[in-house]
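Researcher: Next entry in the queue.
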Amino acid sequence: MSDRALRRDDHPAAAGAGSALPVLLVHGAVQTRAVWAAQVEALAGSRRIVVPDLAGHGETPLGEAPLTIGGMAEDVLRLMDDLGLERAAVCGVSLGGMVALDMAARAPERIAGLVLANTPRSLTALPWLRKSLAALDPQRLLFPIFRLIGRERSARAGLALARVLVGPQWVGRTARHHFIKGFATMPDEAIVATYGAIVDYHPVDPARIRCPTLVVEGAEDAGSIRSQGRDLAGRLRRARRIVLDVGHVAQLDDPAAFNERLIAFLASLESGPEGEPIGRVSSN
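Model: Structure for this entry, 284 residues:
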């Protein structure tokens, strides 16, 4: 087993599920596969559900290779190979959505559809700022902060600052719990490498994405992420955009609303004519 082989939960489809598309659920930064518990419960039996921990997260070790979003996408595609999945839908939140986009650009024949929740194309839409941040290597500042006050207190301080700068609903109560637990349990190197991968990432060209895509925007999410999501939905050829009354981790803030849209979208992938555009709509 490779030191980057992803640990995962693999839930089989029920006997009567027929040819339902498998779905992979990909978590965000400093989270684990546990953030998808409500979606696994809602989809249980209807199709095969694979829920991995990305490199450095949960039970998957960081490994020796440099951590990049492209590398994470390759990790998930290799997992599909290992599990015998020729084609699947991929649902990602935040960093997980960026990984899903990269997967669809690298292997379009493998990805039947995308659900991108709270997903920016990159840390910033401004190329000059992205280049400056990569040169500054700001995530390295986390090492002395962790040594000074610890990872858990660092997470709590960061969330408190975010409430002031972004808004009190940006990270909901359940998401807050997962973020704090992630910071408390992940190694320093894994946290820094994860944020470094986000800073360094060059966004995927939306023209390379062929599959139907559902873009889920949070009404309480950060403005930069919302604007990037709207831009992405507008540039994808086969995208539908919806807006939910949630913050940055949509499936945790309102599982019922998220599951309803997710289930409907997966059904549309299986019932719609191949190659038919799904159109662009926005709903609250």
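Model: The chain has one domain: 8-271.
Researcher: Noted, moving on.
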